[in-house]
Amino acid sequence: MSTTDQETPLAVRGALLRFGGILALNDVNFDVEPGETFGIIGPNGAGKTALLNCVSGVYRLTEGNVDFFGERISGLPPHRISAKGLGRTFQNMEHFRRFKVLEYVMLGRMHEARASVFASVFAWPYMERLEREERSLAMELLEELGLAHLAQAKLSDLPYGVQKRVDIARALLGRPKVLLLDEPTSGTITQERTEVSRAIDMVSARGVPTVLVDHDVDFVSRHCARVLVLSYGKQVGVGSPAEMLARPDVIETFLGTPATS
């Protein structure tokens, strides 16, 4: 890469993850460049979400390293990695379905909470002002994503595609330096994918380096100049979507049968 280690937003080296006798990831390597939307594709069980879990600290790598702007973050707990500026969306928002949209989006700033116990008890005006500021920022972001009219709606009452956009809003409110998008189109219909796509375009326009994991190869190809292909936890290759999807071994990865010429 042309950037230095300190300028490289995210670098994964020799990532290996073992669960007992199961090798979930095996020597995975990639970089995410400044401002890039980098894709990760592969069939079900390829290890895509496991890889994001290792980057974000949910899983601890058996071997290998993850560097964040030149700083080693592998082995740190998720809350410390999040506090450094790594944002993430999730495949499943089931545990938050009773939240209202605005409440859920405001969770994105939890890692930046500046209120001490002293402030909480003795500085109510400060706390009230802080909450107003956070609420205003959340509403501005919802407005930008076309979701402001749903601020008081419950997540459980919204279609999957809208929930996915709300989750992107939550992650963005935390002002991430790098954003991980985990299956943002899962469970969505065509029109919802279009709206999610616009949200990702907005992230890209802000210059936030992004890792996009999705089962929809066409969707990933539309947003990413480079993709990593995984198969059963092993790296098949990294390159442009056109280059990767033309390779016989990648075709075999997705079809399960050797490609014919």
Strand content: 15-25%
Q: Could you give the distance between the termini?
A: 34 Å
What sort of overall outline do the alpha carbons produce when their principal axes are compared? globular
Care to count the β-strands?
A: 10
CATH topology: Rossmann fold
Rg, Cα atoms, Å? 19 Å
Provide the CATH superfamily: P-loop containing nucleotide triphosphate hydrolases
The level 1 CATH classification is: Alpha Beta
Indicate the low-confidence ranges by residue numbers: none
Strand order of the largest sheet: 6-7-8-3-9-10
* Major beta-sheet overview: 6 strands, mixed
Do you know the CATH architecture?
3-Layer(aba) Sandwich
In short:
The protein has 261 residues and is an alpha/beta fold. The chain contains ten helices and ten strands.
Walk me through the topology.
Blueprint lengths: L9 E10 L2 E11 L4 E5 L6 H9 L6 E6 L2 E2 L5 H6 L2 E3 L12 H6 L10 H6 L1 H21 L15 H14 L4 E5 L7 H16 L4 E4 L3 H7 L2 E6 L2 E6 L1 H5 L2 H8 L6
Parallel strand pairs: 3-8, 3-9, 6-7, 7-8
Antiparallel strand pairs: 1-2, 1-4, 4-5, 9-10
Helix pairs in contact: 5-6, 6-7
